[in-house]
Specification:
Length: 446
Amino acid sequence: MAGPVTDSGENQEGKTPVRAALASFMGSAVEYYDFFVFGSAAALIFPHVFFPSTGDAALVMSFATFAFAYVARPVGAIFVGHFGDRIGRRKVLLFTLLLMGGGTFLIGCLPSYDQAGWIAPALLVFCRLLQGLSAAGEQAGASSLTLEHAPDDKRSFYTSWTLTGTQGGQILAALVFIPVVALPDEIKYGIGWRIPFWLSAVVVVVAFFIRSRLNETPEFEEAKANNEVAKLPLAVLLRDHWADVLRVICCAFIAAVSTVFGNLAIAYGVAVGMVDSITLWLVVAANFVALFTQPMFGRLADRVGRKPVFVYGAVASAVMMPFYLLSMSQGSELLVFALAIVTFSFGYAAANATWPSFYGEMFSTPVRFSGVAIGTQIGFMLAGFTPSIVTALGGVKEGGWVVTAGYTAVVCLVASVAALTARETKDVRTADLGLRTSRAPQGAVA
């Protein structure tokens, strides 16, 4: 049972929820700074720099490079999840942080198509795969680490900071990228677009310093001391938690909403006449408000449960997305900003804040990292291919809001139905999470 929490945020058992939440926030900020910079560049820069054709063909190929990371993520999830459950959350998270930062920095050093031909997009794909391998374990590990440090009655609130870090990263990326798109073409498509990728090194250094000062979680240390660390976490996971893995995969489809909002909407807004910089400011505004609404949704999930808050976020996203997209062609910037904030900050943010605790609490300590990593990364593949799929269907052309809104509604429906089949865990002690279907001893798997 968790000890009483002191004013410093630490309790008598040595848990450090505030520091764990900060470390998770910074790690997610790095990941989503890197991912949003890449996504913005894929929509606005890469079609002109890395591909020989123009128009929709170049955009589809550019968005395909965005998707490649999501192909690597399930593979990385198995690898990273295994070691996260075998040697600990903290060590693996330090590795993923450096891998993500390194891959992003290298992108800024790549030659263009005019300089290297098809070698240029091939190298871009390789660096993107490095990002994907890193991302496979970042959020799963960060949410597991924070959940296992948090008091039983505040797990959703503290783990919500893992995903609130994504908002911080997206805000920082957009603020860095906005001046880039305003540059003259010869500078923007020359050295200008590279600067945001190089700046990722600064964010990585700060996050690494914070994370390196954090202890391993008490839950993992206890499992290790009791010889309950699984020798093959994947085998235990598929034996005892296969239904939960499938449930997380379907729930994770909700991430496609973030991709639609942060990447596709940018391209669609430009297609219907909006200025590039305005579409980026929409992302900044919505993510800034979400910095405040997501912790509120996390607290709400600790009071009323994970399922109702998650399902509300999915349904609200599906209902509001068509209004948001339609507003882009109405000529009212105030209306577009208002609907962007409502759709993302008061809709999708509810599901985004809740899923770290919702998914993590489905699994027991010996397989939590693997369960969340594998389940989310397979589900996130849909989000990764969303830009290419919707663009190929005409979703970024004038009138394409119908395709994009319909696609969003379908993924939200699947996520909602899957969430409704889950067990509510807000009142379950951390030590008892995932034990309903588990077999003991879990560490006995060869």
